[in-house]
Amino acid sequence: MKRALLLSGLLLALAACSGHTVHRLEVDLLSFVPPGNRTGTLDITRVEIRVPDDPAGQEVPVPGAEALVDGRISLRVGLTNPGTLPANVDLEVRMGPKDDTDLYDGNRDIQVKRASIALNPGESRPLDLSVDLQPGNPAYDLVKAGSFRIGARLSLSGDRVQYTLEQAEVVLRLKLFNLIP
Amino acid sequence: MHSFLLNPARSPDEVVFRVSANGLSITDGSGRNLIPSFQTGASPEKPQALIPAPLFSIALDLGPGTYLSFGAFAGTQGVRLSPSRELAQALAGGSLDVCKNQDPSPCLLEGAGAFSAGLSLALGFAAPLAEVPGLGRVYVGVRGEGFYGLGYAEGRALARPTFDQDGNLSGVSYEYRYFLSYPDYLEGSFGLGAGGMGYGLRGDAGVAVDGGRWALGLGVRNLLGFAEWRGLEVQVQDGTETRTPTTKRSDFSSPEFFVNGAYRMEGTDLLVAVDARFGSVAPAFHLGLEYPLGPVALRTGIGYEGGLRFGVGMGLNLEALALDLALTTHQAPLVGGTVYGIALAVNF
Lengths: 181, 348
Fold this sequence. Notes:
The complex is a heterodimer.
Chain A: H1 2-13, E1 22-28, E2 39-43, E3 48-51, E4 58-61, E5 68-80, E6 87-97, E7 110-119, E8 124-133, H2 138-144, E9 147-157, E10 160-174
Chain B: E1 3-6, E2 14-19, E3 24-27, E4 38-41, E5 56-63, E6 66-83, H1 85-93, E7 109-132, E8 136-163, E9 169-183, H2 187-190, E10 195-210, E11 214-237, E12 240-249, E13 256-264, E14 271-279, E15 284-293, E16 296-304, E17 308-317, E18 322-331, E19 338-347
Parallel strand pairs in B: 9-10
Antiparallel strand pairs in B: 1-19, 2-3, 4-6, 5-6, 6-7, 7-8, 8-9, 8-10, 9-11, 10-11, 11-12, 11-13, 13-14, 14-15, 15-16, 16-17, 17-18, 18-19
């Protein structure tokens, strides 16, 4: 009976759609970060930050994930080196299953992508990181499991850097018609 | 062959759900809001004696004005998807603030539907009464239809957002109930514990006046009726399932009224026709024109039936075959915009 109910719900969700309709789920992860935590400074007293603070990251449930076609994760951090020495900044995105309690311990979680940038003293530049989720990618399999956790870590090698989180977004494209048996 | 309708419904290339800590929006990919709301048919809350029209039927002529018809039916009694006022406001504005005022949230999406299938037997009788001076000939007709039920399913689900202590969206809570009924002897096949039975009977009546160049008809379906389904009611709330053997009954009277009229204009063969429907179903109104050209009839019309409709068409009436073809438009549910359709009817 549950199957029949799921099918009924699916039919309602698909009302007025057709086989070519793509359902796009956009999750604005940045909005889940309190505004006061979106800007700050990394220095020798604090060489890394995690977004969100919780090592378990942010859980993202995906209804109908079996119908996942592809997706994209986008991050953008505005950086300024106010110091007198060059600075290197690393940005990495990590993902894990929904019951993972620490995305940064290497236990069942994965590093999805890493990007780096070098900043000269007084230089300001954004650091962009974009990940395409395609079949065959371990991150794609995590999303397709129906619920996943995601987090990002910004770390400094150098003297000092100011950061502003400007974008953190997950976009998933689903073809819910594929759920019809 | 009766008739069929082909509606190549307009569907969006994309449906975009955008979720943030403070908002949820559903758009068609071009930024236009989609409000999940539509209804078709009658109310899906309880059974109806007014069953769907048979898919296939066999009619026997029993004498002047009398017929017996036997057929199998299967179809939806009604389907409804409806957001609460607060949810509609939140989706239109893109902010869930209005949903956080109470616990549980007043933002609610309700989906409900009912489906029935069975065998029907109808007996109809129509006869002319005396000519009424200055008015015309008056006709009356009555029709009774009973059914034996092969299956009835009725369901209703509610979904509402949940929020954490900081007011951030944390998930969606669901509750639902459904009722199932089918004949006892099918329990071995389905094994859902919903074996029971279903039956119903209803009466329709109508009167028509033929005034020569004009005609007027009044009709009522399900003037008196009764339907009963015995089966199983299942309610699931907060993950707890309750199963209760239940008997569901229709109202004794849930009439659906029809008014229709036609007038053939003097000096020309142009025919003007109107009809209206109201009562236990959503109101509908149609106005049409027909102009005959030999065996061919040209038609056009407008109407209101869950939105404005417009159609143009033609008919071909030969002795052994009648063919009607129409191009129609109506408003698409959910996504809005105009749907273009083709309606075709063939009679031998």
